[in-house]
Design brief:
alpha+beta, 7 helices
Length: about 290
């Protein structure tokens, strides 16, 4: 395989014109390129960094076999690649003088590319501390019995509630982000729809969010219950509620990521009908 088999796109629209059908052919597995291209089209590249994004496809005889995107922040995202494909991409990007801050993809692909990038540039890959598993919903199986209460979808009038719960989630997972009325629109949380699980007296106890439908898939993101309220079935109830809403919206695939270091959440999602799709990994380049 030759590095010149990788063809750069002029911009995000050109990239989707070339790779859109390929990405939508496996929307669950391609959740990240679908999500990020949608964000870049909606918000503009300047919302995510100072450098221009870069997109490309592995094209042979007019057929797309793989794709990549480089965010303005320097993060590289990949569709699944063979080690040979990863090496040819690393050689192509290195020859073009691109710098990379990180790579994120399924574990096999991310590892193969990180090793190839080190060979071609000398950059040392450092594995991220957090390992994720990507799940895809099979048959939704809501918990029985459900905890007392109901799900309530947050609307525009509930912005304060959405900001509060996303702020609590961010603090819990160590995500450094400013969330207030002025900064909200620029955060990754702003384009989601949120559902709260409320007890019979209207007290919110758990939240789940979902991204817009892109390419036939919807990603459930985020799921959070305060520590002192866990173990009562609230997270399962609100996740089932959001998953049901995603299916009702017409999603062909519903996916979510779970931290592999948390066996409780992984077991919960599998009880709800989610099945492992891929192990996910990231590397920082230093």
């Amino acid at each position: 395989m030759h590095p010149d088999d990788w063809h750069l796109a002029e911009d995000v629209d050109d990239f989707l014109a070339r790779a859109g059908d390929f990405l939508r052919s496996r929307p669950g597995l391609h959740v990240m390129p679908l999500t990020w291209t949608a964000r870049l089209r909606t918000r503009g590249a300047a919302a995510f960094g100072t450098e221009a994004p870069v997109f490309g496809v592995l094209d042979r005889a007019g057929e797309v076999h793989a794709a990549f995107y480089r965010l303005p922040s320097g993060g590289l995202g990949l569709t699944p690649l063979t080690p040979e494909q990863a090496d040819s991409l690393a050689a192509r990007l290195a020859a073009l003088g691109h710098s990379l801050g990180s790579v994120s993809a399924d574990h096999t692909t991310a590892t193969a590319f990180a090793e190839a990038w080190q060979r071609h540039t000398g950059a040392t890959p450092k594995p991220r501390d957090t390992r994720l598993r990507l799940y895809r919903l099979g048959t939704l199986t809501p918990p029985e019995p459900l905890p007392a209460g109901r799900g309530r979808v947050l609307g525009d009038q509930d912005l304060d509630q959405a900001m509060f719960w996303c702020g609590e989630f961010a603090k819990a997972v160590g995500e450094v982000v400013s969330i207030d009325a002025d900064s909200w629109a620029g955060t990754r949380f702003a384009d989601k729809r949120y559902t709260l699980w409320e007890t019979p007296d209207g007290t919110p106890v758990s939240v789940a969010g979902m991204n817009p439908m892109i390419g036939g898939q919807i990603q459930v993101d985020i799921v959070y219950t305060p520590a002192h309220l866990r173990g009562r079935g609230y997270a399962g109830a609100v996740t089932a509620e959001v998953s049901r809403a995603a299916l009702a919206a017409g999603a062909r695939e519903v996916v979510l990521f779970a931290d592999l270091s948390n066996p409780i959440s992984n077991a919960l999602y599998q009880r709800l009908g989610y099945r492992p799709l891929a192990e996910w990994a990231g590397y920082q380049f230093v």
